[in-house]
Amino acid sequence: MRKSHPVRRAVLATAATVSGIVLLLSLKPASDPGSAAAAGGAAPPAAAQSPQGGAQAMGDGTVTGAAARTQYGAVQVRLTVSGGKITRAEAVQAPKGGRSDRITSHAVPQLNQAAVSAQSAEIDAVSGATYTSAGYRQSLQSALDRAGG
Amino acid sequence: MADTVTEPSEAPATVRHTDETMGTVFSLDVRGGVPAVVRAALEEAVAGLHRVDEVFSTYREDSQMSRLARGELTVGECDPEVAEVLELAAEAERISDGWFSPRYRGRLDPTGIVKGWATERAARRLAEAGATGVSVNGGGDVQLLGAPGADRPWRVGVSDPLRPGGLAAVVSAAGADQLAVATSGTAERGDHIVDPRTGRSAVTDLVAVTVVAPRLTWADCWATAAFAMGSREGSRWLESLPDVEGLLITAGDEVRCTGGLAARLG
């Protein structure tokens, strides 16, 4: 019952946050796959998905982030942006095997459904563990503030 | 960082502002009311946040809170808000059976309640000035009042702590004239939640706890307390509180919700 477990998760979360955030901030039109891949740094290149409609100020379309390695396996997220808002966030890759698999297969779809179902998750604010001033600039809340939506 | 954007033409009028204080960033989104009046209230609300930082910061040696903790001031000599916050913190400690504590390493430190309380107060100031919809996000803890428009409620995404950039859920304020969403977790600031019984980082199986309740002052405290308790005890305790719902996510990606949370999702 040492605290090593949560600490490790925190480190992982931080590491994963970096890639996730980079992905978030690279929400450029999906017709520009290079931007997302470049932002992913040394991570595997991000695959740009087909655009949905014309690119607007914030860039509509979907973008897939680089896979982040966690102790349970690789996690990769795909975001869909529409009208300057993130309307869908889904795990395209989630840990497999054993207990992890069972949990993933239940928890992820259920919550994703909750997050995404009603009117495309049009959100006004984001609640999460307190961000620092530096962290804010890479946060989803910051993206919302800039989108003015 | 102090950008204010006013969007004309659309009714109700929208005024947005972001402001850096208390080591984080506040995002204010205000709808309706008379724009000039709302903007004046916004300035006042933001000044209030900075004043709170000045008075309560434990990082400032000369703040009233630091001087109070060192015994150089009495509560009576401090701004009246100090007594107010200390009373609220004592109540939070009592209701949480000591899991929320206004002390850190034996020293007076109500930091855990200050930000939520200040965020809620800023939101109420804006509503009192005639705004019909107010959303104030204090570094990840949100107080909502009214609605952004006649036809839609405020909606708050809950960050998924294990899938950065993703949302674990979306909370809707439909049908509520006041609603707060507060999240405690390890994701951004590392292990900053201390088990008041041991004085060390809380040993918990959780990576995040989100609490939904009418007032942010309490939602923030309950999220912190439930986080320190761990998933089993934390969810049971949140379930026992009236008008409080919780979403608890463990390091193993297991999710626990209180019974009434589903009614708030969407």
Structural description of this entry:
By secondary structure, chain A is of the alpha+beta class. Chain A has one domain (4-147). Chain A has five helices and five strands. Chain A has helices spanning 4-25, 33-39, 98-116, 133-136, 140-147; strands at residues 61-64, 68-70, 73-82, 85-93, 125-127. In chain A, strand 3 and strand 4 (85-93) form a beta hairpin. Chain B has 266 residues and is of the alpha+beta class. Chain B has one domain (4-264): Roll (T-fold), CATH 3.10.520. In chain B, helix 1 (35-56) packs antiparallel against helix 4 (111-128). The model of chain B has no long low-confidence stretch (mean pLDDT 91). Chains A and B meet through helix 1, strand 3, strand 4, helix 3 and strand 5 of A and strand 2, strand 3, strand 7, strand 8 and strand 9 of B.
In short:
Chain A is of the alpha+beta class and 149 residues long. Chain A has helices spanning 4-25, 33-39, 98-116, 133-136, 140-147, and strands at residues 61-64, 68-70, 73-82, 85-93, 125-127.
Shape by Cα distribution of chain B: globular
Strand order of the largest sheet of chain B: 1-2-3-6-7-10-11-12-13
Overall geometry of chain A comes to globular
What is the residue-averaged pLDDT of chain A? Answer: 55
The helix/strand class of chain B is: alpha+beta
Layout of secondary structure:
The complex is a heterodimer of chains A (149) and B (266).
Chain A: H1 4-25, H2 33-39, E1 61-64, E2 68-70, E3 73-82, E4 85-93, H3 98-116, E5 125-127, H4 133-136, H5 140-147
Antiparallel strand pairs in A: 1-3, 2-3, 3-4
Chain B: E1 4-7, E2 14-21, E3 24-31, H1 35-56, H2 64-69, H3 80-95, E4 103-104, E5 107-108, H4 111-128, E6 133-138, E7 141-146, E8 155-159, E9 167-172, E10 178-185, E11 206-213, H5 216-229, H6 231-240, E12 245-250, E13 255-257
Antiparallel strand pairs in B: 1-2, 2-3, 3-6, 4-5, 6-7, 7-10, 8-9, 10-11, 11-12, 12-13
Helix pairs in contact in B: 1-4, 4-5, 5-6
